[in-house]
Amino acid sequence: MRHIAIISSSVRRERKSHNVALYFKNYLKAQNLSTCEILDLKEYNFPIFEDTLKTFQNPTEQILDFAAKIKLADGIIIVTPEYNGGFPASLKNVIDLLYDEWQGKPICIRTVSEGIFGGSQALVSLQFILWKIGAWTVTNMFPVPNVAKSFDDKGNALDKAATDKLAEVFLTELFESIEANNLIIHS
Fold first, then answer.
1. What sign does the dihedral 92-94-98-101 (CA atoms) show?
2. Residues 6+ apart with CB under 8 A from 13
3. In which band, very low, low, confident or very high, does the pLDDT at 69 lie, cut at 50, 70 and 90?
């Protein structure tokens, strides 16, 4: 069975994007689509990295754990809020920490915002950065406008039927990318 890592990128106190990460964890398990785990950057609480993992003198167990989880995942869902037209420094920090781990990795991005645009500006810059380091970014987008009015604190979508329908389309492309990537690797 496929394994999906869900990166919850906000480390803020009143974050709402984490509710969307919880939704995906619940959805993947309920539909029996894959195993999954949330890599919560708030729980990792990484310092600002001064090196990449390749050049790190003495990486901590926590850093090695995170890198291993990214490497072993068949695909990744990044859930990120948009802050002032960009994404959180906590996410950029871990993207820049790794390199080989991102290579060819199918990644889909779920952006959220409190406003009406659903994080579309963060999505564009994040896609470019991931593309630049060799990740396989899934083109299907799933922006969430007005996130506080769309999900509760347990990850339940307030309009479950519509959200599940969008999630199905979103995840289908991720799973197709995983299968295509596996064919490339094993050929």
1. negative
2. none
3. very high
User: How far apart (Å, rounded) are the C-alpha atoms in residues 110 and 72?
Assistant: 21
Amino acid at 25: K
Q: What is the reported pLDDT for 31?
A: 96
State the pTM of this model: 0.96
Contact in structure between 24 and 109 (CB atoms under 8 Å):
no
Rounded to an integer, what distance in angstroms lies between the CA atom of residue 17 and that of residue 67? 22
pLDDT value for 144: 87
DSSP state of 134: T
Token pair listed for 3 = 């394994």
Cα–Cα dist 126/122, whole Å: 6
The upper half-sphere exposure of residue 31, i.e. CA atoms within 13 Å in the direction of its Cβ, equals 16
* Position 122, amino acid: A
pLDDT tens figures, 51-68: 999 999 999 999 999 999
pLDDT the model gives residue 78: 97
The domains located in the chain, with CATH, are 3-185 (3.40.50.360)
Are 186 and 104 spatial neighbours (Cβ–Cβ below 8 Å)? no
